[in-house]
Specification:
529 residues; alpha+beta; 6-stranded mixed β-sheet; 4-stranded antiparallel β-sheet; 18 helices; globular; metal-binding; TauD/TfdA family dioxygenase; 2-oxoglutarate-dependent dioxygenase activity; GBBH-like_N; oxidoreductase
Length: 529
């Protein structure tokens, strides 16, 4: 393979000396590396690039990682669906609020729609005041502005913004006079019985892309001309100078700021050329084929990207009440939540593959497979009405027999049957700690100790052990001493570990019909951190 850039490669060394294993943060400064750094030796081994550096450091890089495409931050036009109104002829990206809250996959789909298409609608959000804040907090944080943590969109007797009248509002983005601008907006309908007052959206990225195609000089002018945006009322004066269309270093559209009501006075040379480009862009945003119009009913909450989508409203008659509550939030928190949801999905897929793969192997001389044993333990916990974290611990308690702490396939179960303590409870807990808190991992870590404890303190318990379980008991240290048992009983997770141990002993019935791994995915997803 082509020799990679040495400083880039060393800067990305994943070893524990270079990065904190808990959070992946680097433990050195780029200036700490020697000026004459080179690759002294390299080879490909077991799907990895092994490197010996000129300063003696050793690194290992997965070959697949070396060829990964850059992820980006999801803010530019790249990877997004640039749309026209007809693209939603079959319906808007939407979800039921209850399903969104209950199902991580549904929540991920909604947030992904906001990232990709710029918006989504949640239906059935309780039409009560301040509920819009709960929607924002389901994926991030509320951005407090001069309007407060939330604002009411309704006719006001002394409005400081045209949004608080019954007039039509042309397509625009909010708060262009802020730096940074709130990147997300939420509008929750509490009441809408007036004639008119329909909502509208325009994909500003699509409009900007059309301008770039039809009039590249006008597009370039709008990307490099700072526009003064201003907002004033009795208590506030806000200013920001930013272009109408912002692009990144690669020329990709990243942000649109478009608000005629807040456009200040442009000074300097080239105003005629700017206004020609500005009018052309404005005309594109008003093309009927780009304007998506729909009505928000009570309980509907619209979540949209305020740096991409222009939102609008038709005029309405004051023959009925129209009341929306809104708030601002930010895309980085939404992106973070979405990434964590995707990470959780990947983790659950990994666990499912273990149950279907390595879990199909024998369970230490018993008449069930490893997966059957763990599923039966979880079913026993459910029948007992155990708390979700205990059901999860029962389901995953023997994971250390299937995989080591680093995710590699384990042979430790066979080691145990050959008389070598594999400490599978420790390795399983260490592996699970990247996804779950101590309420799950501690019962897993202590479940072997719980067997030794019960053998020491509970008359008749040891006699009920299977032949294989009696054998592993001796390998794992035998019954605890009186002192060890007293110390174990004082541990915070001891009672939970004992409960998991009892379900473990009930989970060795050949042919027992119990739910499969998929049954537990929602429970596990809810417990993931």
């Amino acid at each position: 393979m082509t020799e990679p850039s040495p400083y880039w490669l060393r800067d990305n060394c994943p070893c524990g000396e270079c990065r904190d294993p808990r959070n992946g943060q680097k433990l050195f400064q780029i200036a700490d590396l020697p000026d004459d750094l080179t690759l002294a030796a390299q080879c490909e081994l077991d799907g990895n690039l092994e490197v010996l550096w000129s300063d003696g450091h050793r690194s290992r890089y997965p070959l697949a990682w070396l060829h990964e495409e850059p992820e980006g931050d999801g803010r530019t036009e790249e990877g997004k669906r640039l749309w026209a109104a007809a693209d939603f002829a079959r319906g808007l990206p939407e979800a039921d609020w209850a399903a969104y809250l209950a199902d991580p996959a549904e929540r991920a789909a909604v947030l992904a729609a906001v990232r990709r298409s710029g918006f989504a609608v949640l239906r059935g959000v309780p039409a009560v005041e301040r509920q819009v804040l709960a929607v924002a907090e389901s994926f991030g944080y509320v951005r407090v502005t001069n309007y407060g943590e939330l604002f009411d969109v309704r006719v006001e007797p002394d409005p400081n913004n045209l949004a608080f009248t019954s007039a039509a509002i042309a397509p625009h983005t909010d708060n262009p006079y802020r730096d940074p601008v709130p990147t997300l907006q939420l509008l929750h309908c509490l009441e809408n019985s007036a004639t008119g007052g329909d909502s509208g959206l325009v994909d500003g990225f699509r409009a900007a892309a059309i301008l770039r195609e039809e009039a590249p000089e006008a597009f370039a002018l709008l990307t490099r001309t700072p526009v003064p945006f201003v907002f004033r009322d009795r208590r506030t004066e806000l200013r920001a100078e930013r272009p109408l269309i912002d692009v990144d270093g690669l020329g990709r559209i990243r942000e649109v700021r478009f608000n005629n009501r807040s456009f200040g006075t442009l000074r300097g040379e080239g105003r005629d050329a700017f206004y020609a480009a500005y009018r052309r862009f404005a005309a594109i945003t008003l093309r009927p084929e780009l304007q998506l119009t729909f009505r928000l009913d009570p309980g509907d909450c619209l979540v949209f990207d305020n740096t991409r989508l222009l939102h609008a409203r038709t005029a309405f008659e004051q023959d009925g009440r129209r009341h929306l509550q809104g708030c601002y939030a930010d895309l980085d928190a939404l992106g973070s939540t979405l990434a964590v949801l995707h990470r959780g999905t990947a983790a659950l897929d990994e666990l499912a593959e273990l149950f279907a793969g390595e879990g199909a192997g024998e369970y230490l001389g018993e008449e069930v497979t490893m997966a059957e044993h763990m599923l039966q333990a979880a079913a026993a916990a459910e029948r007992a009405g155990a708390a979700p974290h205990l059901v999860a611990a029962a389901l995953l308690h023997d994971l250390g027999h299937l995989v080591d702490a680093h995710g590699r396939e384990a042979v430790s179960g066979r080691d145990l049957m050959r008389g070598q303590d594999n400490r599978h409870s420790d390795t399983g807990a260490a592996r699970l700690a990247q996804w779950f808190g101590p309420e799950v991992t501690e019962p897993v870590r202590l479940h072997v100790a719980a067997k030794r404890y019960l053998c020491a303190v509970e008359p008749g318990y040891r006699e009920k052990l299977s032949e294989a379980s009696e054998y592993t008991l001796t390998v794992q240290g035998g019954p605890m001493s009186e002192r060890q048992a007293a110390e174990f009983a004082e541990l915070p997770g001891a009672a939970d570990a004992v409960a998991v141990r009892r379900w473990d002993e009930q989970a060795k019935t050949a042919g027992a019909e119990v739910p499969g791994f998929e049954h537990y995915r929602p429970l596990l997803a809810a417990l993931m951190r």
